[in-house]
Amino acid sequence: MNKHIQELVELSQIDKKIDSYQPQIDIADKKIVKAEKKLTQAEESLNQINSLIADNEKKVASYEEQLKILNEQLSDNVKKAKEISTEREMKSLAVEEDIAKEKMTFANEEIERLQEINVKKAKEAKEAEEIVKTLKKELAEVSAEANQEKAAIEKSKVSLFTEREKSIREIDQKVLAFYEKIRIWAGNTAVVAVKKQACYGCYMKLNDKTYADVIRGEEITNCPHCGRILYIERETAEA
Fold first, then answer.
1. Is the separation of the CB atoms in 151 and 143 below 8 Å?
2. Confidence label for 238 from pLDDT (cuts 50, 70 and 90)
């Protein structure tokens, strides 16, 4: 096999190893994102419960203020009753008292209803707080584990990048430029093997002349269909 082809095959294999780490990094990041999403949903649920409790407390306070005003109104009516001189005024005052009492009954019922809801919601809030606490712990553990995995990957990548730098220093710059140009669109399939007389980049069958050129390995040969750099594995060439 031509020296340049051998060098490109080795460089391509290094690039494949480097690129193979990205899916592992993505998986680690997805674990963190998933844990963060669960925590966010739990926190939103807790906030909704606490918001409902706070709204109910405001309503209770409003009804209690109404009761205070209505009680004062009934007290004033007792004083007014002593000063009433006509039957018409008596009936009018009685109607006011009935309306005030109906409002007081409704306010008391609403206060009781809202307070019962808040008792239940307080229990739910406590359970939600425990869930949030657990999920925060899980997120911390997942983040620590993922960051440890990513650190190990970065360490391995540094080693490969060092190997790559050494490799490209030994390759003819024109050959390297040719490889990098193909790699722009082909990625880590810029250099592919030929098997069963087919390019394993586009899987198209090669004509006899191109296949013979690849077997000889005297010059860099490109796939006539896709343009990738072709090589044949030693065992196949010997066969």
1. no
2. very low
Domain boundaries, the chain: 19-171, 174-238
Would residue 199 be called left, alpha or beta, if left means φ above 0 and alpha means ψ between -120 and 50 degrees? beta
Q: What share of the chain is helix, strand, coil (3-state, %, to 5)?
A: 80, 5, 15
Residues 6 or more apart whose CB falls under 8 angstroms from that of 191 comprise 8, 9, 11, 12, 179, 228, 229, 230, 231
**164: Cβ contacts below 8 Å, ≥ 6 apart:** 11, 14, 15, 18
Pairing of strands 229-231, 191-195: parallel
For the whole model, what pTM was predicted?
0.67
Considering the segment(s) 19-171 as one domain, its CATH architecture is: Orthogonal Bundle (1.10)
**What does the pLDDT look like over 103-121, one tens digit per residue?**
999 999 999 999 999 999 9
> 41 near 208, Cβ under 8 Å?
no
Tell whether the model's pLDDT for residue 81 goes beyond 90.
Answer: no
How far, in Å, CA of 28 to CA of 3, rounded? 39
Tokens of 168: 């490209």
CA distances from 104 to 23, 81, 109, 205, 206 (A): 67, 20, 9, 91, 93
- Alpha-carbon distance 97 to 70, whole Å? 9
